[in-house]
């Protein structure tokens, strides 16, 4: 039987992106071969984006087939929380002393997430959602990966709607009327319907502790 994903090929495609390169000179396109080396079956209506809600979203999506986050896909899962880089003319991979996220734009880790996020958004279809943090004064940031990469790469011929799920604690004052969502609507293609809904954090917490509760009862 032919294997769908070949780890040797995927690993070589990963290494060619950054090995031997200056760690501030690895653009997102360097990961094109890596992205193309992976075949991933996408299920419409399951994709969830997020911003500033990483721990909550990861715990929530864990063991729930009704939800797919980038960190639950093959590449997202493998490289989540990792740091890597090389050096000019080196054959080595280092996992320490690599540039931080904002030290320079074209660093191996940031470029990987930007490229993987383009792919995740561009392959999304149907009704998609984004879990944003209702404890923040401005839950949407146009400079975040979600705001600067993913929203812009949703394909209006495949995506019907984007629903913001604003995870809110009892004392939080932020609502769906938050001005930051105007910026989101301005970036979003007009052919994609925009929706926003508050989701109580207590409800999400309950669903995290019991993965048997269906998505429809959680969000
Ligand atoms: N400094 C350091 N780390 C950062 C920074 C930054 N300025 N920006 C992003 N990161 C890294 C961190 O590891 C952080 O946990 O990216 C992660 C997500 O950052 P957020 O600002 O919370 O969210 P966002 O930038 O919108 O990215 C999340 O991209 O990973 C994809 O599909 C995923 O929808 C999700 C989105």
From TrEMBL:
SUPFAM superfamilies noted in UniProt: N-(deoxy)ribosyltransferase-like (SSF52309)
A Pfam family matched in the record: Rib_hydrolayse
Leading EC class: hydrolase
Keywords associated with the record: Disulfide bond, Hydrolase, NAD, Transferase
Transmembrane segments: none
EC number per UniProt: 3.2.2.6
A GO cellular component annotation in the UniProt record: plasma membrane
GO molecular function: NAD+ nucleosidase activity, cyclic ADP-ribose generating; phosphorus-oxygen lyase activity; transferase activity
Domain of life of the organism encoding this protein: Eukaryota
InterPro entries linked: ADP-ribosyl_cyclase
Biological process terms in GO annotation: positive regulation of B cell proliferation
Protein family membership: Belongs to the ADP-ribosyl cyclase family.
The protein's name: ADP-ribosyl cyclase/cyclic ADP-ribose hydrolase
């Amino acid at each position: 039987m032919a294997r769908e994903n070949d780890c040797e090929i995927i690993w070589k495609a990963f290494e060619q992106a950054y090995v031997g390169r200056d760690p501030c000179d690895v653009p997102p396109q360097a990961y094109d071969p890596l992205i193309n080396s992976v075949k991933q079956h996408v299920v419409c209506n399951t994709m969830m984006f997020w911003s500033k809600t990483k721990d909550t979203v990861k715990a929530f999506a864990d063991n729930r087939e009704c939800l797919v986050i980038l960190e639950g896909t093959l590449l997202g899962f493998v490289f989540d929380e990792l740091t890597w880089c090389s050096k000019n003319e080196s054959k080595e991979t280092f996992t320490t002393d690599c540039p931080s996220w904002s030290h320079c734009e074209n660093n191996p880790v940031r470029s990987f997430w930007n490229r993987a996020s383009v792919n995740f958004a561009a392959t999304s279809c149907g009704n998609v959602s984004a879990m944003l943090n209702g404890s923040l004064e401005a839950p949407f940031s146009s400079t975040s990966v979600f705001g600067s990469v993913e929203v812009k790469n949703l394909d209006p011929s495949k995506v019907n709607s984007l629903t913001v799920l604003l995870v809110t604690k009892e004392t939080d004052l932020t609502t769906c009327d938050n001005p930051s969502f105007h910026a989101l609507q301005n970036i979003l293609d007009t052919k994609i319907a925009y929706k926003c809904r508050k989701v109580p954090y207590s409800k999400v917490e309950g669903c995290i502790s019991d993965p048997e509760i269906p998505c429809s009862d959680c969000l």
